[in-house]
Every structure is written in C-alpha cells, then in structure tokens.
Amino acid sequence: PLFPVYLVDLIGSASMIVISFLCVMLVRTKKREDPTNVIWTYLLWLSLALFAFAISRSVGHIIKHILIVTGKKSIWLQLRPFSGAMNTIMFVLVASITLFFQRVQNIYFQIVKDKQKIQRFSEKLMWLNRHLEDLVSARTAELQASETKYRRIFEGSNDMLFVADNSGTFFDVNKSGLDLLGYQNKAEIIKKINLKDIFANGEDFQYIFSELHEKGIIRDHETAVISKDGSTKTVLFSCTIQPGQEDDPETLQGVIKDITHRKEIEKHMLRADKLASLGKLSAGLAHEINNPLGMILGYTQLLLRYEKPETQRYSDLKIIEKHVRNCKAIVEDLLNFARSTETKKIESNINELLRDVLKVMEHQFEMNGIEIVADLNEELPNMTIDPEKIKQVFMNILMNAKDAIQGRGKITIKSDLNSRDNTVVITFSDTGCGIRSEDLPHIFDPFFTTKPTGKGTGLGLSVSYGIIQDHGGNIEVESKVDEGTTFIVTLPAKDNRPKGE
Q1: How far apart are the C-alpha atoms of 133 and 79, rounded to whole Å?
Q2: Distance between CA atoms of 54 and 64, rounded to whole angstroms?
Q3: Nearest Cα to 299, choosing from 321, 314, 316?
C-alpha cells in the first residue's frame, strides 16, 4: 500500500540530484562570465554543497527503498546511521558556506569601498599628472619672483649684507659690501675671505663671535673693518645665526653699516662745540688780561724814559717790556681765535696766493738758511675762496715748518688738480724734526703745541683747520720723527660758496 509513496520518494530523490546538478552548472556558467563577482562565487559554493547534500540524501533514500523491497531491511538498519550522519554533515556544510560567505561579503564590500577610494585617488593622480607641468611652472614662476624680489632688496641695500657659514667664511655679499671692502667682484671674496680677516681688531672679532654663538644675535656693535687697500672704516656690526634646515648647516646672516662719515661729522661737531666754548672763554680772559697788561706796558715804558741804558734798572725794565709784549701777542692771538670774522669769498688763484705768502716770508727763510722749492701746477682753475683766510692758513703752515727745521733745511710746496674727485691739493713738506706719533691726533686741538714755552700759543693750526673746513676742504698731516712733516690741504675745485651768497 505504500508503494506510491515510495515511488514518489524515489522520483523526488532522483529529481533533487538532477536539479541541484543543473543549478551547479548554471551558476558555474555565470561565474565564468563574471569571475570577480563574489555573489556568483558564493552561489557556486552553495550549489555544490546542496548538490552534495542532494546526492547524500537521495542516494540514501534510493538504497533504503531498494533494500526494503528486496527484503534486506536489516542491512538498511545498519546503514541508516551512516546515511543520517552524511546528511547532517552535508547540512552543516551548507550552513557553514553561508556563514563563511557572509564574512566574505563584508570583506568584499570593504574591498569595493577601498577600490572606489583608490579609483578616486587614481583619478586625482591622473589629473595632477596631466597638469603637473603647469603646476610646476606656476610654482617655479612664484619662486623666481620671490627670489628676484629679495635679491633686488639684497643687492640694492646701501649697507653691506652678507651670508657666511658657521666659521665666518663668506657665502654671499652684496655690492655695497664689495664697495665697503674694496673688492671688484664676488669671486674675490666668496669662500676665500673670512669675517675675521676684515676686522681691524682681532680681540674685537673674538668678542663678537663669542657673543654671537652664545646669544644667537648681536646688534649695532661698533667696530672697525679693514678694506682691501688697508684703509680702516668704522662700522656698526649686526648678525644673527640662522638655524639649518634638514641637511643644510646653520649660517650667519648680517649687516655691516658704514658710519665712518657719520663719526667724522660727530667729531667735527664736537670740535666745533669745543672751539665755540673755548672762543667764549678766550674772549673773556683776553679782555680781562689785556687791560692790566696795557697798564704794565705803559708804566714800564714811562719808567724807561727816566733811566739810562747802561743801568741795571734799565735792563730789568726792558725784560719786563719784552715779556709784556709777548703776553699781549698771546692775548691778541686769543682775540683772533675768539673773533668770528665774516668770510668774503671771491674768485682767486691758489698759485697766486702761495706766491704772495712766499714773497712776504722770503726774507725769514733766507735768514734761517731754508731753501724753498715750489712746484706749482699752472693749469689750476680759479676757485671761489676767501683769499686772506687761505693765505693765513698757508702762512701758519709755513711758519710751523720754519720752526721745525733746525739749521739748514728745505720746504717743498706743490699744487695740483685731482681730477678724480675734482679737488685742488696743496702739499707742504719740510725736512724738520717731525712730530711724534702720539702727538699727531692733537695737533689741530686749540692750545696744543710742541714748541717751547713762549714760542707759540697752539692756535695757528686750529684756526687753519677751521678755515679749511669752512671752505669744504680738509687738512691732513703725515710725519716721522727726524725725517720731516707733510701737510696736505685739499680744497674743492668747484664753486664752494654757501647757497645764497
């Protein structure tokens, strides 16, 4: 009576095997068409597991019915546990594949997400690659513009700007630095000259370098530097240590400001203030002293009328008269120093003024056995100067030269035109005793003199210096003891009258 049921079971089992096989083949085909699709991979494994389950269950049922129909049910009873175990294993396999592919699906979605990111980055990279040349060109242009800007500032500065390594060797110097140090081009100084080579005072350099490395910065330190030709210039030194980046070493970046001219102006202003104060003091003292001296001289001369020349009293009075006259001469010099006379500049020829002075002093030179050699450039242009004051300067210098020569000697006078800076240069060289090096800085100071007491007031050169300064010129002196002295007077050849004159 159960035959129809058994038949249906047999047919169903066989159909289950066929259908599951067809499912496997179908999914396998789809998998080949889209091998990267994880869904088809999952379905293929699931179909294989179901196919295995179908075979296990269907074969077990078929064997069961065959054994029952043939009267061998006892064999089936022995096989049934194994068939059930196989079915269970196949069922667990199906479930495991599902759980496994759930995890694989999560991984797949993450991979897809990452793939999308990679694709976006790839697209951006492709865009950058296509536009890289334009971006590099634009950035290069910006860097070049920045470099040009700062290079223009660097090279255009009126102060010396420099970059040096940690030891002080120059890496770069601007044009003002080359001018300050007397070099023609950067090749002469870069990587060849060290900071210590330009400092006039080695101890000053050591102090600056020590402060710089201790504090990292130094500002406006007044010092002196030596240029290529050996001349010394007063400067303000400022510098900072710039830390290196990555593999680049640290560098020194600094400014050297030339204040030589400013110091000269300050020196002249200080001297002018000093002279003004001395002038006021001298005028007051001169007036206070001059009146008593006049009375002493008057009474001395009155007493001399009543004394015979051969008497001792007459000799004593003559000594008094001589020294009083010397005192009055000194007082007169003080008054001349204090008196501010108006400068009257007219067109004059320097050579003519020199000849006038030499004509006046010619007799004194002859009496002292002094030879005068005049080497005058007759092509000198006329100049707008105060002739009387300039002659006073020449006379003061020549008088000092005469007093410096002991016995016979020679004074050489030269005049010439310096076309480079358009100045007229007059030099007075003597073969006298010379001036000590420690006295040279003071020879233009008021009341300073190296002559014996009573032989000079120390005002002649001071007054002369002021006159030349008023004319926009300068006086310099060179001297060696026992070899002689040279005074160099420089006057501008152009019209040096003050505006409005």
Answers
A1: 79
A2: 15
A3: 321
Sign of the CA dihedral running 399, 400, 405, 411: negative
Chain CA centroid to CA 158, Å: 11
Residue with tokens 């003004």: 276
Largest CA distance in the chain: 199
Q: Where are the alpha helices (DSSP H) in 341-448?
A: 350-367, 387-404
pTM of the prediction?
0.45
Residues 6+ apart with CB under 8 A from 114: none
List C-alpha distances in Å: 15 to 22, 43, 253: 10, 20, 94
Distance CA 326, CA 498 (A): 38
Say if residue 322 is exposed, middle or buried (CB neighbours under 10 Å; 0-12, 13-18, 19+).
exposed
Helix axes 460-470, 260-305, angle to 10 degrees: 130
Q: For residue 470, give the amino acid letter.
A: D
CB 172 within 8 A of CB 179: no
CB-CB neighbours of 97 under 10 Å: 19
User: Could you write out the DSSP letters of every residue in 177-239?
Assistant: HHHHHT-SSGGGTTTT-BHHHHBS-HHHHHHHHHHHHHHSEEEEEEEEEE-TTS-EEEEEEEE
Q: Tell me how far apart the alpha carbons of residues 164 and 186 are, in angstroms, rounded to a whole number.
A: 13
DSSP code string of 276-312: HHHHHHHHHHHHHHHHHHHHHHHHHHHHHHTS-TTSH
Distance CA 174, CA 167 (A): 19
Q: 359: which 2 tokens?
A: 């004509």
Q: What mean pLDDT is predicted for residues 183-196? A: 88
Query: 424: how many CB neighbours lie within 10 A of its CB?
Result: 21
Q: Does position 374 have pLDDT exceeding 80, yes or no?
A: yes
What pLDDT, in 10s, does the model give residues 135-149?
777 777 777 777 777
Residue 184: exposed, middle, or buried by beta-carbon count in 10 A (0-12, 13-18, 19+)?
Answer: exposed
Helices (H) and strands (E) in the chain, counts: 11, 12
Residue-wise pLDDT for 201-229, tens only, equals: 888 888 988 888 888 899 999 999 999 88
Q: 419-431, pLDDT tens digit by residue?
A: 888 899 999 999 9
Closest to 163 measured CA to CA, from 111, 261, 241: 241
3-state SS of the chain: helix, strand, coil percent to 5? 60, 20, 25
Phi then psi for residue 25, to 5 deg, are -65, -40
DSSP 304-337: HHTS-TTSHHHHHHHHHHHHHHHHHHHHHHHHHH
Q: CA 304, CA 297: separation in Å to the nearest integer?
A: 11
